[in-house]
Amino acid sequence: MYISAWGEEIVIENTLGSDYLEVIMAGITHPNPTYRIMHNISDEFPYDYYVFEYVVSGTGYIETPAKKYMVRGGDFYFLNRQRYHIYYADPKDPYEKLFIVLKGSFVDFLVSHHLQNDSVYIKKCNVHGLMVHMINLLNRDGPINYDKLAVSILELFQQAFPSPYQIQPAINRVPEMIKNYIDTHITEKITLDDISNDLYISKSYIERVFKNEYNQTPMAYCINQKISQVASMLVTTNYSLSHIAQQFSFSDVKYMSKTFKKIKGKTPMEYKRDELAKNQIVE
């Protein structure tokens, strides 16, 4: 840990993660009336990371070319990558906040399925305990436990960003609602009964409207999404097959490998070897 020029406690910076998940920075911003951060105000220094911040107390502001936002204690906000942002403390009531800056295909996936393509997202949401938990995971000696961190990030998205399936939709949005439910629970063992019970929609109706919209059954979509994430982890991490199978709630490695080959036309290890060779990566 060190103290930044702004008086922030930086608990971690520039970790050696992977393309799947990497922590750029995390810490605590203490009240400072001169605190001011700028992202992508010019092309010279592109800021290609996602920023997640929870305001513990005080007041701050976020400016984009289109709008100025105020944030106060109890607000959670998200700043999208590669966007123009200026954010700063109110000089008379400077905020205290917790922050985590992330990148990676895991976060890309969650952002694309939970959020619109907005520059800023703000919600009154008590994720203080969860943010503290993630910062504590990072503020310790030894390697980062990326498994626990990934679970916490997923929980953060589920709490902070409303998913379409949690809002009663118009009839023509039901297929999208089902799709988002599956995407949000992709690491779990999902059944048609789960979807039906959680969304209060009959199984027959779920299957019919989803297939009409996406030309495949909900369960076929689910397994394809799982295998897509498995493929990404094979190439971007060194996790074992048993670890990946457990991560996505497959019953065992044999079943995951059989399913993977059916969809991708190759075994997981054949796929990994070929993709690494394509990118000229030597292990």
Describe it for me?
With 283 residues, the chain is an alpha+beta fold. It contains 10 helices and 11 strands. The strands form 2 sheets. Strands 1-2-3-10-5-8-11 form a 7-stranded antiparallel sheet. It has a 4-stranded antiparallel sheet with strand order 4-9-6-7, with no helix packed on it.
Q: What is this structure's SSE topology?
A:
Elements: E1 2-3, E2 9-13, E3 22-29, E4 36-39, E5 50-57, E6 59-63, E7 68-72, E8 75-79, E9 85-89, E10 96-103, H1 105-114, E11 120-124, H2 128-138, H3 146-160, H4 174-184, H5 192-199, H6 203-214, H7 218-236, H8 241-247, H9 253-264, H10 268-278
Antiparallel strand pairs: 1-2, 2-3, 3-10, 4-9, 5-8, 5-10, 6-7, 6-9, 8-11
Helix pairs in contact: 1-3, 2-3, 4-6, 4-7, 7-9
Key descriptive features of the protein:
283 residues; alpha+beta; Jelly Rolls; Arc Repressor Mutant, subunit A; 7-stranded antiparallel beta sheet; 4-stranded antiparallel beta sheet; 10 helices; 21% strand
CATH topology term of the largest domain: Jelly Rolls
CATH class wording of the largest domain: Mainly Beta
Query: At CATH's second level, what is the architecture of the largest domain?
Result: Sandwich
User: How far apart are the termini?
Assistant: 32 Å
Count of discrete structural domains: 3
Please identify which CATH superfamily of the largest domain we are dealing with: Regulatory protein AraC
Oligomer: single chain
Average pLDDT over all residues? 86
Poorly predicted regions: 166-171
SSE topology string: EEEEEEEEEEHEHHHHHHHHH
Shape: globular
Task: Tell me the fraction of residues in β-strands, as a range.
Answer: 15-25%
Number-wise, the strands total 11
Largest sheet features: 7 strands, antiparallel
Cα-atom radius of gyration:
21 Å
Give, in spatial order, the strands making up the sheet with the most strands: 1-2-3-10-5-8-11
Helix content: 40-55%
Count of helix runs:
10
Q: Name the structural class.
A: alpha+beta
